[in-house]
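Database export, one record per block. Field names are fixed; values are copied verbatim from the stored entry.
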Amino acid sequence: MRPPHVQAFIDRALPYARHASEATGVPVSVVLSQWGVESGWGTNHLSEGNNLGSIAHLGRYVSYPTLDAFIDDWVRVLCLPLYTRVRTAAASGKDPVAVATLLAESPHSESHYREGSHPVGWLLVRVLKDFQLAEFDDAE
């Protein structure tokens, strides 16, 4: 069972995560995991500006007028060459854990997903598993 604040975040973000997944090939579970971690499940100051992914331009976090505007920019960022390995793994059918690990290992993201002595990607993978986010990968 998910904590109420996590479920509320998923309920709000799920349609957007599905759209982002369709546009990039990244599994919905990985998208939700990243957004949940980055936004504190919708509780941090960035989420007030509809920035669920901690996207920054020129060193400053972006505030978006809508979640749709955030999704457009998140898709743009995930289509940059530094995320090619992530998209390629997702397109080849790699499991969500492998895709989440590659996302965490990308040059920009690596410092965000390192926690203590755990390997890079551990946090995204733990969130994906602990909150059973893979159930959303096959749901319509």
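Remark 1: The domain at 4-135 is CATH 1.10.530.10 (Lysozyme).
Remark 2: Residues 4-24 form the longest helix (21 residues).
End of record.
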